Amino acid sequence: MSIPPVGILVGVIFLIGFGCASGSEVVPDVFQTHIDPSVTFLQMLAEPTAHQGVVVLLGGEILSATRLTKGTRLEILQLPLDGLDEPVLDRTASQRRFLAIA
């Protein structure tokens, strides 16, 4: 299985941590203004370099975590977000996997 370069592109997206958050607010207001909601996961897969530097909100399920010298590599099963910015529970809705470095 080959993980697309977009996995590295989204690498240190600080929003990964929010996918594990609970409560009524998944993404704090201070970060909401930085997110570009027009960029979809599939658009990033199709043209990774066109979206470098863009802040996006992705959801998913962490499949594995590997400790690195500087940080942790996460393999994430992408899952669409619902109206509350939380990942849907239906794993068959996934459009692929991606990597994040945190």
Give the helix/strand layout.
Layout: H1 6-9, H2 16-19, H3 29-32, H4 41-46, E1 59-68, E2 71-79, E3 97-101
Antiparallel strand pairs: 1-2, 2-3
Brief digest:
With 102 residues, the chain is of the alpha+beta class. It is built from four helices and three strands.
Features:
alpha+beta; 3-stranded antiparallel sheet; 3 strands
**Approximate strand percentage:** 15-25%
What structural class is derived from the secondary structure elements?
A: alpha+beta
Distance between the terminal alpha carbons, to the nearest Å? 22 Å
Oligomer: single chain
Number of helices: 4
Order of helices and strands: HHHHEEE
In which range does the helix fraction lie?
Answer: 10-25%
Uncertain segments: 7-22
Q: Strand order, biggest sheet?
A: 1-2-3
Q: Strand tally, please? A: 3
Average pLDDT level: 80
3D architecture notes:
This protein has one domain (6-101). The protein is globular, with a radius of gyration of 13 Å. Mean pLDDT is 80; it is low at 7-22. It is of the alpha+beta class and 102 residues long. The chain starts with 5 loop residues before the first helix and ends with a strand. The protein contains four helices and three strands. The protein has helices at 6-9, 16-19, 29-32, 41-46, and strands at 59-68, 71-79, 97-101.
